[in-house]
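Go through the following before class.
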Amino acid sequence: MTAPIDQIVARATAAIRTALGEDFADADPVVRPSQFADVQLNAPLALAKRAGRPPREIAQAIVDALDQAGISVEVSGPGFINITFDDGFLAAAATSQLGDARLGVATQPAQTIPVDYSAPNVAKEMHVGHLRTTVVGDAIVRTLEHLGHRVLRENHIGDWGTPFGMLIERLIDVGEDSPEAALLETDPNAFYQAANAAFEADADVADRARRRVVAMQAGDPETLRVWQRLSDRSNVYFNRIYRMLDVTLTDDHLMGESFYNDQLAQVCDDLEAAGIAVVSDGALCVFPPGFTGRDDKPLPLIIRKSDGGYGYATTDLATIRHRIDVSHAERIVYVVGVTQAMHFQMVFAACRMAGWLPDDVPAIHVQIGSVLGEDRKLLKTRSGSSLKLVALLEEAVDAARAVIDERRPDMDEATRAQVAGQIGIGAVKYADLSVAHDSDYIFDLDRMLALSGNTGPYMQYAAARIRSIFRNAGLDPAMQSAPILVGEAAERALALKLLDFGAVVARVGDDLAPHLLCAYLFELSQAFSTFYETCPVLKAEGDVRASRLSLCALTLRVIVQGLDLLGVAAPQEI
């Protein structure tokens, strides 16, 4: 089905072409919400200068050429075109949406899209800074997949480099199956700190660690075996966090730095041979045009250090090359902190200079802001260290459990535990996703868990309330199929909001902006609340009752589907 707004855009585009000629076939109707009508076309104002005619004259010409089936149209003000949908038109569209398995979300022409997100480091704790890259990235891949794209989840973990000599030696010293080695699965920071302490305190350990790095880079089988053991145990910890967060990353999506290690020398050789990389102060660098430092001198992207080692830039160049040449990516997405913006701009520019990143393949850095404490500084523990992500999530679940224990003592223990997890984790994820991804936000559990406002629990409660309506009626919402009628203002407002769903999901996929879906779900839940308060459902009779039950069922499906695209559960009851 085609959403009403999309229909209006198509009709208006055709009318502009008819009224003004083929030279205006590319004109944008400029659809806007309006307090005077369901939608407003601003095209006459935008086209007046180009057409050399007064806006109201253009507006009337467009109206005369517009297909007005199912709508009422008027010209107002300096040249606005106000459009109001007929009740019957809205009712038919909403009924069609009810019968549509995709709820009005159209599939897009499929693209292959690698999405790089989460990216923790082996043998290190996932801290609160990893929350947003993981949660936002997962919402993006869920949405892109729902829109029909072939999404390649890529978890670019830090699993290679100089520190691994130290970590491998520590694992050998304490034993691969020792209690200390088990910390890699439960408290990786403790293992890392012990390894670092030994490295700093014992010259022999430090010397062995340095030799181990050389052996690792040379491909020594025994060293690589222990390195793999180290990585595997660390992955157990990552997966514990991912299951708590209910994200879709698995071991199949691991694409760590080590994967590209044997490609780095070739990257440098090819760029140097092409004259794109040059030696500067002993290091091999690319100088993408347009990037300068405070001294107005060109900024280098260092791809081979003066000591012969490689850095993040080299790996990122190899990664993009692989994603184009091997994965045949048509759009590349990185969900990484905002502080890396300059780095990725330079990497993208270097890849385009080399011809590795074609001009028709967008490379997008979804910039991620920070999670702040009440002092508006980066959220940390009282001691000043980074807050462990697992501790934050456990605190959220515990807080949700306290609320559930108070509100629903009638629930059995297993159900309360399950719902507390869904609400606590959902509250954290939704709070994160409801903010524009490049903005910072303050972590406030009380606000996150509130049953009012634009919060996860409010959305979850809206779905649970609708389910209770059907339980009270002894009906299954999935079986509700009666035609929808639109008579009351609240029914009309709810139907209009429901019919926006497809356009909103498409925009989330296009803009990679999950907060737009959160805002939509909040507005939908508000519209439903008004409808429920002013339009009796179970007390209504005949076709009106059946219609209102259908509106309830459709609202439930849209909320649940929307929350699922965000990665937030919708409990059966709260």
